Amino acid sequence: MRHAFGFVLGVLLTPALVYGAAWGYVQAGQSFDGTGQEITDRTRIYGAFALLAAVGLVMGVIILARWASPLVSLVPALALLGCTAWFLVDPGRVLDLPGKVPPAGDMDAGLRMLLGTGLYAMMGLALLMPAWAPRRWSSRRDDDAPDMDFYSAMERDGRHADRRMR
């Protein structure tokens, strides 16, 4: 059940991460003037940075959360890496894809730029890491038992160390 929920959550998080990063990128790019070296719209850039920070926070939680099934991160990782590989093989067809998927407009430019710059590959590799940890695939009860053995062994070693120091 945990992995089924993780799969569904991974499917839902994939477009949220992709579109969130793309929209934040576009909004940040439109809110400053690179040649004049000034921020033209502070409200927009604060919102864009907040969204990009939220995408980073969600990715961090997905990567670090021991309670989460590895499928939560594996599904978006495979989607992002698959799109990146497809981009390297046939860039024309992949760069046409954002125009066919709603919403259209400025978001398309953000999706294309982040794909072409390799940011989605970086996100995909970061999200792929939790799938390699064998402990993430086991149930939560299995995770708790070794921890308790470790801490009780540490307590025993600590008591022996105290006796040796006296």
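(ticket continues) Second input and output from the same batch:
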Amino acid sequence: MKTGKNVLNSGHHINPPGCVNSQSFGSRLREERDRLGLSQTQFAEVGGVARTTQHIYETDIRSPDVAYLEKLRGIGVDVSYLVSGSRQVAAGSDTLMVSGLALLNIYRIVDEFCVDEDGEPLPLEIRARFFQLLCVSLKDKSSQDQSLDSLRNELRRLTGT
């Protein structure tokens, strides 16, 4: 609505009353995009929209449809967080709880094992597979089995080296 030379704010950047999180949907969407390390263009491609549409979603001018959200869920976006503003802790057989030290040790082992003859890191896809393999192998093990030496032995056992 225009009044003289001033334009009143349409209110599309203001959070609705009763919102769980003070952040807007668009802010949470950008936060998830940043968390995954993707550009607006890359994120838009995953969601099947143009980069300008992605920008429109992130600035709360328009909201995406369910098909877009389902595509984002496929790359690890926490859709529940986008919609409700609160993170959901996954439960079930695919949940793995590891200590910070164990996670650090897994990264170290992947860095140690996943190099070529010249000492250069192998492609990300290969390193990611090794990382997943080690994480899954820890699922039913005690914290003592998460040391560097036990992880090295586990990876040797799994890879036959």
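Agent notes: Strands lie at 2-3, 6-7. The CA atoms of residues 38 and 96 lie 25 Å apart. Closing as not reproducible unless the customer responds.
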